[in-house]
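Aim 2 progress. For Carboxy-terminal protease, the working sequence is reproduced below.
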Amino acid sequence: MKNYSIILLAAALSSCASIRRHNEQRASCIEPDKLKEDVDYAYSKLQKMHPQLYWYISKQDLDHKFDSLKQTINQPLTPLQFYFKLQPVIADIREGHLSLRIPRKKFSKREIKTLENKKGLFSRFEYYVKDDHLYITENKDSIENIQPGTEVLSINTVPVSEYLKKYRALISSDGYNTTFQSYFLKDVFFNFYTAENGFKDTATIETLYKGQKNTYTLHRESKSRNDLDQDKQQEKRTPEKKVNDYVASSNSYNRNFKFLDKDSTTAYIKVKSFSRDYSDKFYKETFEKIKKAGSKYLIIDVRNNYGGSLYEINNLYSYLAPQPYVLIKPSQLTSRLTPLKTNYFRKSNAFQYAFKSLAYPTYVFAQTFSTYKKDGKVFYKMKADKPTKPNKDAFNGKVFVLINGGSFSASSIITAKLKYDQRAVLVGEETGGANDGTVAGFYSYQKLPHSRINLPIGLLLVQPNINFLHTKKGVAPDITITESMQDIIEKRDPQLEWVKQEIAKEKEHQ
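Predicted structure tokens for this construct:
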């Protein structure tokens, strides 16, 4: 026990020292020559590992952008300042999965506990982004009686429009898609803001509502005992929470199923994220209910679904396919050694590191034989690129899929396949992810040598098994219906309502 206590104490002291070193490094300035070396390092790793680096930008143009960036680095910068210079160039590659990790301050366990015991400063609102304007669409706690539809003009006297312009340059969708940014930006705006400005206990915002300007001071209030009890209750994983993939932080489910009418004619499945967790059980139970009810229509809602597991979308497709199918084309890599560059020991504690060390030979063996060469190219073996049979409870009726600019990655893969196979009617707006695939799969986490910024690089070219359109844009809906801010505020759903009306019309003619 004494030795065990010494080990724990040593681990705690080491963790504290590590946090201190990280924060000191984050606050220190780095010489221009070293930052330029980081630029070269990042580009070199991208050229070696990224299987489709010049999909949306020519090598000549990208070379020019990196060279031009280095010419602007003529004074020492902190890692955060350097991030705001390098990330816009990474974003110009137009690969939505490709992004530097913003260098954040690290917190001790005590500091994290203190923050957890307080309410958020900005997260108690829901937001909507339109051009260079940020609006509040929901005030969860009725803070200062701020009304939905209120525009936030400034935060601590800095115009929000400046932040939006700055942060918009940091993100991109796949290709030349125009719908993704506003959805993603509203979700990550305050991630960027707090990384840049820190976690403050107060903030002064200037607002505009119905032509009238107001100024409010927001406070990071302490949670009540009731709030803390609710947090604990939300974290409990009941069987229902597991199957529907409950997310405690948002008090919502990743997966939901219900019938939209009394006679169960229309089934509705909402998937917020293809997380894979308990997905087999969810789809099995859901499609058994749909089959038993004899439903004729199915609505699948993947709006604001940023993607996730290929396994899950392949499983979902098996419940929609009328015949055997192949979901994706073979996934390309830059070399047979690429799968071994996935940072196997990343984020391992001492115990995990020891265990992984024992398992490492098996891992190397498995990864070595997971690739194959064909026509001079290297591919990775994936279950989703093999023929899959329809599930015995596969749905045979009419399928509608709701999509928008927040439908990204795996959401775009499955909707592109559904559209190509003419298995569903897509309703909404162009997806945020590309029609012809993306680069993701698994990642190699590269750390720039001087700034210590992390650069995760997707290693697999993942494309739906379709004839490519080469539009360099998202999956286009069959029926275009957009949603306004007022729709969101008043909780109207014009896209779902259109589908319901279309189903009602078809029923009348049956």
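The chain has four domains: 14-91, 118-219, 239-334+382-508, 338-380. This observation will guide construct design in the next reporting period.
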